[in-house]
């Protein structure tokens, strides 16, 4: 991460040379310097643009990728371009300051929900998420204060999936999780388990999210047992043979828990 600091502006000082006095002195000569023109801020990105980003490019804090036609293959769609508010508690902060980045994150996540539609459960189960970009420090020093929110689909742990031309209200469509849901290459916790988009080859699927009771401590056995039982009931409702049930409750990661996530995932087999 780049070091944080206050946004700096250039100050130009005008200097005049004072003339000499006295009859035997040459007439005073005065010179001035013209004020330096203020640098032009980097233009804000276009609205509703499409990009063919790699996973690594999507993880960067800034982006120099050029847009591509939305009719062509693409992996990112800009769903919002907004203005950064760099003054926090009376202090002017750099664009990479934690509080500024948290401000951008909150606005982009809110826009993601509004853009995708669907209910909260569908959004939790989908592999669709949002990344955000802001100007570089050099660009912000020249007055750039924009931010950009891009919708992406996670195909695997280091790969993005292509997006359709139209993404607004995508999660309001029937059976959308058959394509954009969260699936696994094996049972969660297994040696070869990898979380993948459901349009890819898979054998297990995240069927539902299960809330954990308020006040639960991380990995508490009683709460885990209750969630596991709820997950079994989900599999019992969809299994073709109640005598061969398989299910798995997955706790949030420690990082997700510390960030406030209080639900886990119920997984069941999803044969082709």
Q: What can be said about the biggest beta sheet?
A: 5 strands, antiparallel
Q: Which segments are poorly predicted (pLDDT under 50) over 5 or more consecutive residues?
A: 1-32
Rg for CA atoms: 27 Å
Count every helix, treating DSSP H or I runs of 4 or more residues as helices: 7
Number of separate strands? 12
Give the H and E element order. Answer: EHEEEHHEHEEHEEEHEHE
Alpha-beta content class: alpha+beta
Shape: globular
Question: End-to-end span in angstroms?
Answer: 43 Å
Beta content: 15-25%
- Work out the helicity level: 10-25%
Average pLDDT, rounded to a whole number, is 87
How would you describe what is shown here?
The chain is built from seven helices and twelve strands. Strands 1, 2, 5, 6 and 7 form a five-stranded antiparallel sheet that branches. It has a five-stranded antiparallel sheet with strand order 9-8-10-12-11. A two-stranded antiparallel sheet has the order 3-4. It is globular, with a radius of gyration of 27 Å. It has 272 residues and is of the alpha+beta class.
Entry keywords:
single chain, 5-stranded antiparallel beta sheet, 272 residues, alpha+beta
Quick overview of this protein structure:
With 272 residues, the chain is of the alpha+beta class. The chain contains seven helices and twelve strands.
Helices and strands, with pairings:
Elements: E1 50-51, H1 55-58, E2 76-83, E3 87-88, E4 91-92, H2 98-116, H3 120-125, E5 128-133, H4 137-141, E6 146-156, E7 159-161, H5 177-180, E8 182-184, E9 195-197, E10 204-211, H6 221-238, E11 248-250, H7 254-258, E12 263-269
Antiparallel strand pairs: 1-2, 2-6, 3-4, 5-6, 6-7, 8-9, 8-10, 10-12, 11-12
């Amino acid at each position: 991460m780049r070091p944080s600091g206050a946004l700096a502006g250039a100050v130009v000082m005008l200097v005049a040379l004072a003339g000499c006095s006295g009859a035997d002195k040459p007439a005073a000569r005065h010179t001035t310097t013209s004020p330096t023109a203020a640098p032009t801020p980097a233009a804000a990105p276009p609205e509703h643009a499409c990009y063919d980003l790699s996973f690594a490019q999507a993880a960067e804090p800034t982006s120099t990728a050029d847009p591509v036609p939305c009719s062509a293959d693409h992996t990112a769609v800009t769903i919002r371009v907004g203005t950064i508010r760099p003054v926090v508690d009376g202090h002017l902060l750099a664009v990479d300051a934690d509080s500024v980045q948290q401000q951008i994150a909150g606005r982009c996540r809110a826009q993601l929900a509004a853009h995708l539609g669907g209910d909260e459960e569908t959004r939790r189960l989908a592999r669709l998420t949002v990344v955000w970009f802001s100007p570089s420090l050099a660009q912000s020093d020249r007055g750039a204060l924009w931010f950009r929110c891009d919708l992406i689909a996670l195909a695997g742990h280091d790969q993005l999936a292509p997006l359709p031309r139209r993404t607004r209200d995508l999660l309001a469509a029937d059976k959308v999780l058959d394509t954009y849901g969260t699936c696994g290459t094996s049972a969660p916790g297994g040696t070869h388990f990898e979380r993948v988009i459901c349009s890819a080859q898979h054998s297990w699927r995240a069927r539902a999210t299960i809330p954990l009771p308020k006040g639960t401590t991380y990995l508490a056995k009683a709460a885990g047992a209750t969630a596991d039982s709820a997950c079994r009931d989900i599999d019992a409702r969809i299994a073709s043979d109640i005598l061969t049930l398989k299910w798995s409750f997955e706790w949030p990661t420690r990082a997700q828990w510390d960030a406030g996530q209080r639900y886990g995932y119920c997984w069941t087999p999803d044969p082709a």
